[in-house]
Specification:
Helix content is 34%, strand content 17%. By secondary structure, it is of the alpha+beta class. The protein is globular and about 70 Å long.
């Protein structure tokens, strides 16, 4: 009887002590870069357009051209047209849907310019929510018919005119002229007025099935236009992200958000050390309320996630700042395009571990990259100089150092130490 009395008492005390150890997330702003208002992509798969337009709006702010509201649908209309032509010319052996990547918007801006939202809302009734499901279904059906006609030798030479008409009927004709502050412009002059130079932007990623420091075509379904990405070691990809934010540049983010670690409700994205499948129901419910250790994400682990199609190309968002979390360090402030949901009004706080594991790619201004990386990628002339065991020695640009090269010192991409009022455990070494 004494044991039966003492054991429940012991368990009760243990639960109290355990509850006392649980601590909530605690954030301190490190860097916040100007961004425009949060938008809502609504019932469309056009996150690539909303996030990249938001990214360019921050670029325009950075360049001193003021708060601009760019038309996502102007670009989306052009990309749907490109998808139709690509799909038909590839005889149906191509991705056809609403998705895309950051370079699709940049390529469209380079070719067709850009317009303000006021000049092209991209829907006949602006009060109705965006919904492209029926449009895409109609376009695909017509393109499938064009493919059939092509195989039969009956395809009209003007078949793209039918696509243009369908797009005009849905989005409205694209404007040739419009006014900005009472000044007449067209899409090209407006782009140039804003100072947007699409060739100044690059996309970077980090996978071991391609050589580092070289370009490769990223193998995700939405890369229908075969865009190229620079491949960096994971530590240098993350160092580039941190450097860009510290220098006042925002970053476009392509990521996997289909896993349990991404919570729009709690405006938090985490990569817990303990697998979600091993968590109890109570632990899962508490995951976004109380801090817990996160997984050490290595280059090899990241590659496995990609190869096993666990980390996939789900969603694009806009990184606008950096935070310091009391227990684990770096977090990122990310602007979403699902409206002003959650207490953060449409923003999400993303842990460094989540970023390392679930990033498909970043798109950023080439000047936002560290100088040594720009040189190594051939974006800037000169030799790369790295501190190592044998002193500072040059490494020619666009070469891949050996893993055993003593000149190559490990770079963890961390922020400088931030003085804290609350102590935290030492960060685990990564990579």
């Amino acid at each position: 009887m004494i044991k039966r009395f003492l054991l429940p008492a012991f368990w009760s005390i243990s639960c109290v002590l355990s509850a006392q150890k649980a601590e909530p997330f605690s954030f301190k702003e490190v860097k916040q870069i100007a961004a425009t208002a949060v938008k809502n992509q609504e019932r469309t798969g056009t996150c690539w357009a909303f996030s990249t337009a938001s990214f360019l709006e921050s670029e325009v702010l950075r360049m001193g051209k003021g708060d601009q509201n760019l038309s996502e649908m102007y670009v989306v209309r052009h990309i749907y047209r490109q998808k139709c032509e690509n799909y038909v010319r590839r005889q149906g052996h191509a991705q056809f849907g609403e998705g895309g990547l950051a370079h699709d918007l940049l390529n469209a801006v380079k070719m067709y310019g850009i317009v303000p939202e006021s000049a092209y809302p991209g829907r006949k009734d602006p009060s109705m929510p965006l919904n492209h499901a029926q449009l895409v279904s109609t376009l695909k059906s017509r393109c499938d018919n064009f493919i059939k006609q092509g195989m039969e030798g009956t395809l009209s030479a003007n078949w793209m005119q039918e696509i243009d008409q369908a797009l005009d009927d849905f989005f409205g004709p694209v404007p040739q002229k419009f006014k900005v502050n009472d000044v007449a412009m067209d899409p090209i002059t407006y782009r140039d007025f804003l100072g947007i130079r699409p060739d100044d932007y690059v996309s970077i990623s980090s996978y071991t099935h391609h050589p580092f420091y070289q370009q490769f075509i990223l193998e995700v379904p939405d890369n229908f236009s075969n865009g190229s990405f620079y491949n960096l070691p994971l530590s240098e990809m993350m160092r580039s992200l941190n450097f860009a934010i510290q220098q006042g540049f925002t970053v476009e983010w392509d990521a996997d958000v289909s896993n349990k670690g991404f919570s729009p409700q709690y405006a938090l994205a985490i990569e817990p050390e303990k697998d979600w499948k091993d968590k109890t129901q109570e632990e899962t419910a508490a995951a976004f309320k109380w801090w817990e250790p996160e997984r050490n994400i290595t280059q090899e682990y990241r590659q496995q996630l990609f190869d096993r199609q666990i980390s996939t190309d789900d969603h694009l968002m806009h990184i606008t700042g950096m935070l310091d979390e009391t227990h684990s360090g770096i977090y990122y402030q990310v602007k979403n395009s699902w409206g002003e949901i959650s207490d953060l009004k449409g923003y999400v706080r993303v842990s460094e571990a989540y970023m390392r594991a679930n990033t498909i790619s970043f798109t950023l201004h080439k000047d936002a990259l560290p100088s040594d990386i720009r040189k190594r990628l051939g974006l800037e002339p000169g030799d790369v100089r790295i501190e190592g065991a044998n002193g500072t020695q040059p490494i020619p640009a666009r070469t891949k150092p050996s893993r055993n090269d003593p000149r190559v010192a490990p770079v963890d991409g961390k922020l400088p130490v931030i003085e804290k009022t609350t102590p935290r455990p030492p960060l685990k070494k990564q990579d």
